[in-house]
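haha ok so turns out i had the wrong file open the whole time. this is the CORRECT one, sorry everyone. sequence first:
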Amino acid sequence: MRVRTALAAGALLAVAVAPLAHAHAHAGGADGLSVHGYGTVTDGSTVTLSGTYRCVDDSAGPVFVSSTLVQGNRSAGIGGTRAVCDGETHEWVNTSVVKDPAYQPGAARVEATLMQLTADGMGLPTPGFLATEKSDVELY
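then structure:
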């Protein structure tokens, strides 16, 4: 339960602060993140987003890929994936049921964050932003 609470708190902080931190993937051992140009939304309001990430070191704490979907005036966090930080490029897929507000097929925007949780002096998780990406997507 602590990990779920920490992930939720971290994801909320990522959404609030993501515009302040922006890093792009590049060669030479850097952390990086991308968003595929598409996502899916089912009749049952299940949203799935995906992309790729690369991180080098998770020794300071767990790393997660969080994502937020924006369509019109609607915005919602879509899942969170635990990252494997081995220097290799990996796929991430985040899925959530979002009934209110409901998303529709069509144009949208994804804001994804590669975030590391580290303990502060009191043992509380503090997010560190390794990479962020904003991308237009088409929902199918």
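Strands lie at 32-35, 38-41, 46-54, 63-71, 74-82, 89-97, 106-119, 125-139.
again sry for the mixup
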